[in-house]
Amino acid sequence: MRVAIAGASGYTGLELIRLVQHHPELELAAITSEQRAGVAAGDAFPGLRGLVDLPFESLDPASLAGRVETAFLCLPHGTSAAAVGPLRAAGVRVVDLGGDFRLRSMDDYIRWYGEHQAPELFGSAVYGIPELYRGDLAGASLAAAAGCYPTSALLPLLPFLREGRVATESIVVDAKSGVSGAGRTLADGYLFAELEGSPHAYKVGGVHRHVPEMEQEASVAAGEAIRLSFIPHLLPITRGMLTSVITRPRQALTTADAIAVLGEAYRDDPFVRVLPEGEFPTVAAVRGTNFCDVTAVSDERAGNLVLLSALDNLGKGASGQMVQCLNAMVGLDETTGLLLEPWLP
Asked: In what order do the strands lie in the sheet with 292-299?
């Protein structure tokens, strides 16, 4: 299957290049970058020399339409919608990593992102967490891959909301991400020299754009509207994400019982690894992979249930998830091209 990667010179695009190169059913046919158009991949990124024999080009949906069956879009929020229309009209399958098609409500989209560039297509995408929407992804032509923070929070949380095991109020999501999650943003708070030795919170108070995405899917699972508190942090590491979700159980739950809930929910999901009691998720165990490690701890003294997860924000939180979505869309085993060992050490 011939694929294109739009926005291929960004961190998620470069990670997708790596994954596509390892995928036995995918052929990389085009890579786009507005900043590096006309430059060979190996000249722009010497690590790709001898591995990717393609030049970057400007994004032209009409040109891509005749050359690829699938397009991965790794474009800034608000910009991918304009490309999706022409690509879909030409019969090109699309997996979008931006926020343009993740939300179900146009009002919510306008509030958080502004005017939509392809309103006629709004609502036509499948939300891209295969563990949640595997059946809907099968045969779909447009998938909106979920954000990294929502993936890390929703995978441990939703099984408990579906079963009514935890209260739907006072849910707190505390998440910490490697700085690659911000892309190549040139701002003091994202520069490694400023971040090293100084991890910090940012966009606290319900203003982060991933909040509506988390609340949307949590509300679907619970069957009622949910509002949660989200506290994102940046860590002085390049990639990796640790998330803690603090909830209130409706009835007493032991740690063993809570882990059993996760085990039952994900028994058939190869990329969600439920850790045993006493073992906690770590970035090192998932870095460079498409795995999300999850577990639960009952804090009986405080009356809380703490849900923990770790994933690679460029893997299961972005590019790996996109490939997993595509595998589900075209009927391949979801693990195809994605069973890569973590970077150890």
From this structure: 200-201, 228-235, 171-178, 241-247, 304-311, 292-299, 272-274
83-118 confidence digits (pLDDT tens): 999 999 999 999 999 999 999 999 999 999 999 999
Strands 272-274 and 292-299, sheet pairing: parallel
Looking at the whole model, is its pTM more than 0.90?
A: yes
292 flagged as catalytic:
no
Instruction: Compute, in degrees rounded to 10, the torsion defined by CA atoms 47, 51, 55, 60.
Output: -110
List pLDDT tens digits, range 190-223: 677 778 888 999 999 999 999 999 999 999 999 9
Could you tell me the CA-to-CA distances from 165 to 67, 181, 257, 299 in Å, in that order?
A: 49, 32, 11, 15
Superfamily name and number for 149-313:
Dihydrodipicolinate Reductase; domain 2 (3.30.360.10)
Find the length of the chain.
345
Superfamily of domain 2-124: NAD(P)-binding Rossmann-like Domain (3.40.50.720)
Within 8 A by CB and 6+ apart from 184, the residues are: 10, 11
